Amino acid sequence: LIELRDIEKIYKVGTIEVPALRGITMLVRPNEYLAIMGPSGSGKSTLMNLIGCLDTPTKGTYTLAGEDVSRLSDNRLAEIRNRRIGFVFQTFNLLPRANALHNVELPLVYAGKPIGIRRQKAREALAAVGLADRTHHRPNELSGGQRQRVAIARALINNPSLILADEPTGNLDSVTGEEIMAVLDEIHRQGNTIILVTHEEYIARKAKRIVRLLDGLIEKDDYVS
Amino acid sequence: LIELRDIEKIYKVGTIEVPALRGITMLVRPNEYLAIMGPSGSGKSTLMNLIGCLDTPTKGTYTLAGEDVSRLSDNRLAEIRNRRIGFVFQTFNLLPRANALHNVELPLVYAGKPIGIRRQKAREALAAVGLADRTHHRPNELSGGQRQRVAIARALINNPSLILADEPTGNLDSVTGEEIMAVLDEIHRQGNTIILVTHEEYIARKAKRIVRLLDGLIEKDDYVS
Ligand SMILES: Nc1ncnc2c1ncn2[C@@H]1O[C@H](COP(=O)(O)OP(=O)(O)OP(=O)(O)O)[C@@H](O)[C@H]1O
Ligand SMILES: Nc1ncnc2c1ncn2[C@@H]1O[C@H](COP(=O)(O)OP(=O)(O)OP(=O)(O)O)[C@@H](O)[C@H]1O
Ligand SMILES: [Mg+2]
Ligand SMILES: [Mg+2]
Known about the structure:
The structure is a homodimer.
Chain A: E1 2-13, E2 16-28, E3 33-37, H1 44-51, E4 59-64, E5 67-68, H2 74-84, E6 85-88, H3 100-110, H4 115-128, H5 144-156, E7 162-166, H6 174-189, E8 193-197, H7 201-204, E9 209-214, E10 217-223
Parallel strand pairs in A: 3-8, 3-9, 6-7, 7-8
Antiparallel strand pairs in A: 1-2, 1-4, 4-5, 9-10
One adenosine-5'-triphosphate sits between chains B (11, 13, 18, 20, 38, 40-46, 90) and A (134, 137, 140-146, 171).
């Protein structure tokens, strides 16, 4: 499904070069459940952005479901991002002026779904993350963990086959975190692929494989029993 | 130092009332080290905002160092917020167009400190959280955990006597999290008061007392041995 070869990402800050990824090679098969760990600043979110086609590598190749991503048209990339991939951002990235329901239904708006269906699905998605009674709150009227759950519901609403979740339980107490992990577990059981970034060991243990980054490189890549 | 009596906070969303805090009574003495825990949405950030004078209660009284906060002038409140309290927000609240150095020096700008001193102190504060080589990055050029650490450095720069930290390690791996907790430990050792919200038990264990919220009320309030 996902094939990264010698991937590098170098950011520029003024005249300074920041090598965020310094040569990543990894393979992810369909229906894998993978956790990415590593110190703050080691390149986890950068790697997720590349996998999710939100950014392009400075060097190396990325093959997604057999297609070289760097050769894809903008339309094809947009279609992959909107329909095939669900992304939970580390900083949520919700629309501040839209309420929870509208934020969650947004991917369905882009997919051209009619309003009745989108509203229904958005309500169900919010109920699945425990926010049935917060549909009309805007992000600044929600707690940190509630915003995180809206971001999760939005990522899942299009039934994507690849879920990229960047610290999805970072703002959640352990009970609510477990509920979210149960949702992801079910999505995995249905045949989809899950890649999540976490700094919490007990969350990483739920995955089948743990990739550890250190300073822009893969330090370890092990299947857990 | 802090005396809350029958504190209630009711938000309005359209015509609906959301009772975020439903009667909180608690006392915090100088030099205490307190952790607040509880499920997502239970009222932790709301309580922190009230304690930090960033918001006012709907009912109840808040006495800070002997003064009834509701009777203080705006100038006095601003002075308390800028000089006596250091606040680490759950969503960091950094200025997006300013780099890390400038974000961290901001409280010193408000305190009227000259530029040489503020730049020096801001550099030291960033070095203390491991970001000496990121001073000129803006927030969108920083990782999630690096933004969190800039927010922490900014909260500490004025040497406040009351630190309010809302999930200060939520985006940090355990090693970096331990470094931050060591910084807070030292600040506590110097006689200051620390109140932190966390959903991680191993972080809460570093405090001397744990207050657990549930649905806007205090469920438990225990000193840990
Ligand atoms: N400005 C607001 N308007 C309306 N409701 C609000 C507002 N801010 C918070 N709430 C509601 O008040 C309740 C408490 O919010 P608060 O942010 O204090 O929770 P929290 O304990 O910090 O949660 P978390 O662990 O998810 O950060 C939540 O149910 C939230 O939806
Ligand atoms: N847009 C950018 N411009 C410049 N440098 C950047 C940019 N984005 C990230 N960086 C740098 O690249 C490195 C990797 O960042 P990344 O966000 O991938 O880290 P991370 O592993 O997700 O960290 P965290 O656990 O703190 O979220 C960091 O040192 C960061 O400062
Ligand atoms: Mg990150
Ligand atoms: Mg909160």
